[in-house]
Design a protein that fits this description.
It is built from 4 helices and 13 strands. It is of the alpha+beta class. It holds the Pfam family SOUL.
Length: 222
Amino acid sequence: MICLTGFVTLLLIFTAEARVGDSSQLNFCSETEQCLLFDSICNSTTYEVRHYESVKWVSTDYKSLSMELMMFQSFWRLYGYITGENEEGKKIDMTAPVLMKIPEKKIFQQGVFTMSFLLPAEYQNNPPQPTNKDVYIQEMPAMNVYVRSHGDMMHTFADKKHCEELSSALRPVNAKYEKGFHYGAGYNRPSWNKKCHSEVWYVVEGDPVCNNSEADDQNPEP
């Protein structure tokens, strides 16, 4: 087990170049030309630690009891934006992943979900503003995340299962992460007939913790 030092984390932040780019750089991103790119800090059989640069997304919030109840309306709000419902009337290519910020709440309790589409590289600096009042541009800060990948479509039960598996893997190594929410990332169009690539993310709090000897080899101590 190794806990990366703050120095290494800062070094990654200032040297990382990957933001939004060619999807061929990721073997699981095949349905769009551009994807959200990242630096892999370490990887194990139970979770991965990634560093993401600050990027802009188009987002919408929706108060709901569940992920399923918010997906349809949220998707079409954002789809409207990329098909011309913006101040410049621009048609904007779809990217991956579709990201959802998912509140941690009781099963029959409402919470605010946020769905986001990643803006392509050419719109990162100056994205056209939405004309729908329920849609907005947001810039997420650079962050490290704990990631667990899976082959299920994004829905409440799969999300809950894989979040529990990720948190169970993080607990023994005393890895700290932000509480109250997590992210779900989907890279494929919904389909019951093919294998998907989906992910759950927890945002790292403090220094990221790796839990395998491979990470030690990638980040040797001086």
